[in-house]
Amino acid sequence: MQKTLNKIDQASKSSLMRLLYGFLAVIAGHQPLLRNDGTDVKLDDIVEKILTGKEPKLEISEYEIKLENDDYKFEAWNANKYYAWLHSGIYENKKTGYRYRWGSGMPSRFMAELFLDYTKQLAKKSI
User: Fold this and answer.
1) Cα separation of the two ends of the chain
2) What are the b/e assignments for 7-42, b being 16+ CB within 10 Å?
3) Could you tell me the residue ranges of all domains in the chain?
């Protein structure tokens, strides 16, 4: 988890690093050149809050991923990595009541990769 947090900290200091990561991920073949939807900056912020917050409870199915802790509830599309992965869902901050629903946006390639690593680590812990 610390490795993920370090990557976020480094990228927060440089938007160029996030852009460069997206370019290199496509060149290396980790992510597709074309994605079904564009980057949603608010979703990037939400994913960052999830990655840096309290560890959530994780539920994964073929088509949905759910994360929940005392602070938030997050549900999103969990298929078609990386073409349409996380392209729709809902985030709710339990403390403030803030809700964000999206249906045609995705996190940046950088945040999607970190989110995937994070959820893999959570899944390993729950086994």
Assistant:
1) 17
2) beeebeeeeeebeebbeebbeeeebeeebebebbee
3) 2-126
Backbone Cα Rg of the chain: 14
Quick: pLDDT tens for 4-42.
555 655 555 556 666 667 766 667 667 656 677 778 889
The whole model's pTM is what? Answer: 0.77
Beta strands in the chain (DSSP E): 57-60, 64-68, 72-77, 89-93, 99-102
- pLDDT tens column, 72-127: 999 999 988 766 889 999 999 999 999 999 998 888 888 888 888 899 899 988 76
